[in-house]
């Protein structure tokens, strides 16, 4: 947590405005102010607490009059910060972005691939690019990671960055930026990424056991996320990453023909009966298990909230996806993204996704003198 000064004016009608420039410098995602303190704007409270984007603001002023300067408490993980490479590699973001973009243009499926790769990196040994290391018994070789793709995009960006500023930018930061760029390339909301991660030197297949599995109950999913400092809201929001990309039939075929709960059709009763024939046509009973199906039917290339509308309609693909809706513990959160609950509790998926991604991208980061800056992303130095 760091304190930064932010010029902010709040008038008596409760409308706030920030000095142009100071807000952008701090990398705020959502410029709307949300009141989080329990005292109304026109009441006499000496400290008013507000949320602005990914920041928590505490405004100091005399009761009823909150003009003047505000103190902004910017939530950043220890060690990572905005503009980390401003002097040492100023073009890092544009180099990563243009690399991801050129691969995306010839193969749009790299966007979901990179987003998933970043998630699998962060959940094992922290966001330290341990997923990228080649070799027997590394994370990459483990069962849950065997279908990851997009490694060539990271290698390409790394080569360009080594040419521009040798030995400076970590593979962990490249992957974090590439995940963000994948969201914005698919028309999602972008967000500022605090940087300064260093690369890990340990990558073990056996460490991947704690990755969430599509057969996990909600309780287990919540626990696995909690173990990484992420709450149920982060879980539901981040799994919303399934708004882009595909899954292979092998991961959900049991839901179509021989589900654990016995039904007349043999199918998972939470699947919309009108949707079942469509899924069965895509994944025939003894067909090719590697055939890929959109995780967000009708909108697999666009980063939007339709994934949650599909869940509401019994059109989730993975068992773990649909459970986010059938389990009351997570449904109330998912409902906020479908517009089911109006008013105060309505949340915008894009903004919340960005917020949770900043949290996820800071899991167990190595900074300062920890780890190393790899010369090539596929091997430790
Ligand atoms: C409970 C947690 C999660 C489970 C059980 C899960 C499971 C899966 C599975 C089984 C697939 C299909 C893989 C394949 O067939 O290649 C998949 C794909 C995907 N996952 Fe997740 N996932 C989870 C959370 C997340 C999170 C947090 C993100 C990102 C923030 C994410 C992003 C993706 C993306 C983008 C794809 C599509 C990959 C592609 O098209 O290549 N997932 N996930």
TrEMBL record:
MF annotations from Gene Ontology: heme binding; lactoperoxidase activity; metal ion binding
Top-rank taxon, per record: Eukaryota
Cofactor: binding comment: Binds 2 calcium ions per subunit.
Annotated disulfide bonds: 89-165, 122-127, 171-377, 249-283
Binding residues annotated for heme b, in chain numbering: 242
Annotated localization: Secreted
Protein keywords: Calcium, Disulfide bond, Heme, Hydrogen peroxide, Iron, Metal-binding, Oxidoreductase, Peroxidase, Secreted, Signal
Gene Ontology biological-process entries: defense response to fungus; hydrogen peroxide catabolic process; response to oxidative stress
Known catalytic reactions: 2 a phenolic donor + H2O2 = 2 a phenolic radical donor + 2 H2O
Positions annotated to bind Ca(2+) 1: 121, 124, 126, 128, 130, 139
Active site: 120
SUPFAM superfamilies: Heme-dependent peroxidases
Domain Plant heme peroxidase family profile: 79-381
Listed cofactors: Ca(2+); heme b
A GO cellular component annotation in the UniProt record: extracellular region
Binding site for Ca(2+) 2: 243, 296, 304
Presence of keyword Lipoprotein: no
Sequence positions that bind substrate: 212
EC number(s) given by UniProt: 1.11.1.7
Site (Transition state stabilizer): 116
Family of the protein in this entry: Belongs to the peroxidase family. Classical plant (class III) peroxidase subfamily. Belongs to the peroxidase family. Ascorbate peroxidase subfamily.
Function summary: Removal of H(2)O(2), oxidation of toxic reductants, biosynthesis and degradation of lignin, suberization, auxin catabolism, response to environmental stresses such as wounding, pathogen attack and oxidative stress.
Annotated PANTHER family: PEROXIDASE 25-RELATED
Entry protein name: Peroxidase
